[in-house]
Design brief:
eight-stranded mixed β-sheet; alpha/beta; about 675 residues
Length: about 675
């Protein structure tokens, strides 16, 4: 299953929609879901007519409605001809425009508009284009079905820039979209639009159609998300400024996000966030050139000193000066609480001893924000705001071994200076060596949040778990030395080649490969965290190899901290009911249909924990359905009562978080450990 999103220029006229139909037809074997923007220029026209109506210019607003009506109906006639389907579609489009005219009349009577009324009008563009595209696809023999996006995209009630609710979106997508795809239909939805829990229409903000596509892809676990636009992909710079701009064929998620945030128009800044969370690759293609190679956004793109340049207009800089900053804790928290109260997102931050400079894009609350900063009772400092026409930034990486990560441009110079200073400093703990005992020490002399060190991590396994670990590690400031797939690691060669550049390895692969992977890491003096399930029959051999080489191994059937605590509760529950024969104890687990081992490692561990206290075996029932990460329920059944102990994984990132915690803890130790050791260590610290 893939999600295919088409921008405004890709549905701008009948010729563009013809190209769209050809692209969708070519992707039918991959079970596409189609997300479309409004026809090019439509949203701007809708916003303009809403403003005209609210200002009392009803005639001008109605003229705008009629111009849009003519454009959409002409396109429908060009695509469908004089057919019953065309007549039905034109009737439906006309009803939408009649409703739009009524909304304009209502605004003219009221004399003002609200964010809610603006959303109700702006949303019509995607509603119209999705109806038009669905009908055109059906006319060309493609089994398309129109879906009202407001029934799937559930959001909060912040009109104009509503916050999506991923859990509710996933629930709706599984209920509405998945059955359609499984029976061979092609759902067609409008992007950018949604609705509240109470059915009020909302929008995600300008450029939100890309965001919609990514949210739908994440909700359904799509194998890829394709963004079809009017350029060949992400370029090294804006071709309108630099004609020699070149195509970037592969780029990393974090770099693409930085470029989008700093003005790269080809991609909405929020687009890839849901995709990143699940490691879903994002492709950018040119709808005018379907044969082009496009740009692939993924975890394992090659690293470059400089990837691209992007310019951003309309940036406002706020500089806050205050002597209170000097040697005072809590100042930045107080400062950013002001921005939070005014719902203003900060882009770039730069600090000195007595001042903080931030940049913002949204100036709708600027006046009240500055007043709040200067309010006598909670004065933060002297505030100045300056509007800059353009700011240029460079997406780059600091050299490996010196805090490698993407830096915001406002602190890029400082980051380079920091790296230069670090380069000349001795670093005796830079590499873990056998025999070095004690708690983890800085692997590269760069402390991370919570006092945890910044690590160089080798991720073995490029499946969903491996990609989730790599993404979360990057978010925490760690460096991913490599993300190895099965084809990258023939006979452990890639592990041996990468081990010298890493501080720790995290291994999530296939049961048959785990033993050799762990052995290769241990042989290279590299601590290793493994979560490969189904390989426990080889665990004694793995542990013997670790002990022989005085290595370090952290293994667990499940890296969820909640599961580790639940296992302790399961032991206690088993012991509590051991002398109560009137109760039957059993375990039920539910996992996604792709889960291979049954029972899972977590299910087997939970049953064993309960059995150790109970004194008798605990049967396990395994269910494989859907795409849920995993639910495990220990059930104690009596004739008149039932006791349950349940752990539910809501997101695969919980396991990635546990694996990273284990890796951060393991460096600097040797021996064989599991989650019980980590939990006990945390309790001792507490």
């Amino acid at each position: 299953m893939i999600v295919v999103k088409f921008g405004g220029t890709s549905v701008g006229d009948s010729a563009a929609i013809e190209r769209l139909a050809g692209i969708v037809r070519d992707r039918l074997p991959r079970r596409p879901i189609v997300v479309v923007s409004a026809m090019g220029g439509t949203t701007n026209a809708l916003v303009a007519l809403a403003e005209q109506a609210a200002d009392g210019q009803l005639i001008s607003a109605i003229r705008g409605v009629e111009a849009l009506r003519l454009r959409h109906i002409s396109t429908a006639e060009a695509l469908l001809g004089d057919t019953p389907r065309a007549h039905e579609l034109i009737s439906e489009l006309s009803a939408t425009f009649d409703e739009l005219a009524s909304l304009a009349e209502a605004l003219s009577v009221l004399g003002h508009s609200t964010p809610r009324s603006n959303d109700a009008i702006a949303a019509k563009g995607e509603m119209l284009s999705s109806l038009l595209v669905a009908a055109a696809l059906v006319e060309r023999g493609i089994p398309a079905e129109h879906v009202d996006a407001t029934t799937v995209m559930i959001t909060g009630d912040q009109f104009g820039r509503a916050e999506p609710r991923p859990d509710r979106i996933a629930e709706s997508a599984q209920k509405v979209l998945r059955p359609m795809v499984e029976r061979g239909a092609v759902p067609v939805l409008g992007g950018y639009i949604g609705s509240t829990e109470h059915g009020l229409v909302t929008t995600l903000g300008r450029g939100g159609s890309d965001f919609s596509a990514s949210l739908f892809g994440a909700a359904l676990g799509a194998e890829a998300i394709e963004i079809w636009t009017d350029v060949d992909g992400m370029l090294t710079c804006d071709p309108r400024v630099v004609p020699q701009a070149r195509l970037i064929e592969r780029i990393r998620f974090d770099e693409a996000s930085e470029l989008a945030s700093f003005g790269a128009k080809v991609l909405h800044p929020s687009t890839i966030t849901p995709a990143v969370r699940l490691g879903i690759p994002v492709y950018i293609y040119n709808a005018r050139n379907p044969a082009g190679s496009g740009t692939l956004i993924t975890f394992d793109a090659p690293k470059r000193p400089v990837s691209a340049l992007a310019g951003k207009q309309g940036v406002t800089v706020i500089k806050v000066r205050s002597p209170r900053m000097l040697l005072q804790h809590g100042f930045l928290r107080t400062l950013f609480e002001v921005f939070d109260r005014h719902r203003t997102s900060v882009d770039v931050v730069a600090t000195s001893e007595v001042s903080v400079s931030v940049t913002i894009d949204d100036v709708s609350h600027l006046d009240s924000l500055v007043v709040d900063l200067l309010a006598p009772r909670r004065r933060v400092g002297r505030a100045q705001s300056r509007h800059r026409r353009t700011r240029w930034c460079r997406t780059h990486r600091v050299q490996r071994g010196h805090g490698a990560r993407l830096w915001r441009p406002a602190i890029a110079t400082r980051a380079h200076a920091f790296a230069q200073r670090q380069r000349d400093q001795p670093d005796p703990a830079r590499r873990w060596r056998p025999g070095w005992r004690g708690a983890a020490a800085p692997a590269r002399g760069v402390l991370h949040r919570r006092g945890v060190v910044t690590l160089r991590i080798l991720v073995i396994g490029d499946g969903k778990m491996g990609r989730a670990i790599a993404q979360l590690a990057a978010e925490r400031g760690h460096e991913i030395v490599a993300l190895l797939g099965a084809g990258d690691n023939t006979d452990g060669a890639a592990i041996r080649a990468s081990a010298g550049h890493a501080d720790v390895a995290i291994e999530f692969t296939e049961p048959g490969a785990a033993r050799a992977n762990v052995a290769a890491c241990v042989a290279a003096d590299l601590p290793v965290v493994t979560g490969t399930t189904g390989s426990y029959e080889a665990l004694p051999e793995i542990e013997a190899e670790v002990a022989r080489r005085n290595g370090a191994l952290f293994w667990a059937p499940n890296f969820s901290l909640g599961v580790a605590l639940v296992l302790e509760l399961a032991r206690q529950a088993g012991a509590a009911f051991a002398r109560q024969p009137q109760f039957d104890v059993h375990l039920v687990e539910t996992h996604h249909r792709a889960k291979k081992d049954a029972p899972s490692g977590t299910g087997a561990a939970m049953a064993a924990a309960a059995a150790s206290g109970l004194g008798r075996p605990v049967p396990v029932t395994s269910v494989r359905v859907g795409s849920v990460p995993g639910t495990h329920t220990l059930i104690v059944d009596g004739a008149f009562e039932q006791v349950t102990l349940t752990h539910e994984a809501r997101d695969r990132r919980v396991f990635a978080d546990g694996a990273l915690r284990a890796a951060e803890w393991l460096v600097g130790r040797h021996g064989i450990f599991t989650m019980r050791d980590l939990v006990r260590a945390q309790q001792e610290i507490a």
